[in-house]
Amino acid sequence: MILSKLRNSYLSLFMIVVLFIPIIQSCTRDEPVSPRQINLEGKILEFHRLQDIIIEISLLEQENLTGTRSSSKDYELKLKEVMQPLVENGRGILNELIRQIDLKDPQYKLTKQEIKDIENISESDLAQLSFIYSILRLKKKVKTITTKSSQDTDIIECNMTAECPPKRICALGKCVGWEEVGGCIASSFGIPAAVKKMIANTAVLATAEGLLTILKLLVKRYAGWIGLGWAIYEFTECLEVWD
């Protein structure tokens, strides 16, 4: 009698568990996961430093195009030397990302190979990460700028004298809009249309998902120093900053 009651009690408990597990799993699956905000305060390269690097790379590329460079090896070594600030900055961005999130977290849907590639990213890809991410994140700063006085504009940011309208940035003497900047980044660095839509969104760029999207794109291909130098030069040509 007692055994029968115990058996019935355990059977009832078992049935309750079996019935409720799918409901719990369903609720878990349907619950949206909020994008993880990443704090990269102080990790984004300032525009005046980017501008100096852009000028040096563009001069090297012009030497290369006119045939005045000494040798291919020297040319590559010079590009690598000029881009060292980008390498260090890119490493700082990646280290900060890894410090704040777990790459193995299922939320980020990274394969084992993608995690391995990100952890073993090349120096030239770190430089590429720094350049792309820093240029795009500048949009957040410029969007908050007003034109009440010269001190409140983005002119101080790029050390120029002429004012630019709101939501535009002074790029080597030219005021350009962010649609132009994003479009030129996409075309110069071969960014697919789907990712191009993502990089246009400042809020997405500030998340782990946004940064990982750029990282996954970079580690899938190897540009090298010469390829990266050409992409940066193409970026300046696209914006027509030398006209």
Description:
By secondary structure, the protein is mainly alpha-helical. It has one domain. It has helices at 2-30, 47-66, 72-82, 84-100, 112-119, 123-143, 155-158, 178-188, 193-199, 202-205, 208-219, 224-239, and strands at residues 168-171, 174-177. It has a two-stranded antiparallel ribbon with strand order 1-2. The radius of gyration is 25 Å and the shape is globular. The protein starts with a helix and ends with a helix.
Explain the layout of strands and helices.
Layout: H1 2-30, H2 47-66, H3 72-82, H4 84-100, H5 112-119, H6 123-143, H7 155-158, E1 168-171, E2 174-177, H8 178-188, H9 193-199, H10 202-205, H11 208-219, H12 224-239
Antiparallel strand pairs: 1-2
Helix pairs in contact: 2-3, 2-12, 4-6, 6-8, 6-11, 8-12
The main β sheet shows up as:
2 strands, antiparallel
**Rg (CA only):** 25 Å
If you average the pLDDT, what whole number results?
75
**Strands ordered across the widest β-sheet:** 1-2
What is the terminal separation in angstroms? 96 Å
Unreliable sequence segments = 13-24, 26-30, 142-162
Tertiary shape? globular
Share of residues in helices: 55-70%
Number of domains: 1
Oligomer: single chain
Number of strands: 2
Secondary-structure element pattern, one letter each: HHHHHHHEEHHHHH
- Give the helix tally: 12
The structure class reads mainly alpha
What portion of the residues fall into strands of 2 or more residues? under 5%
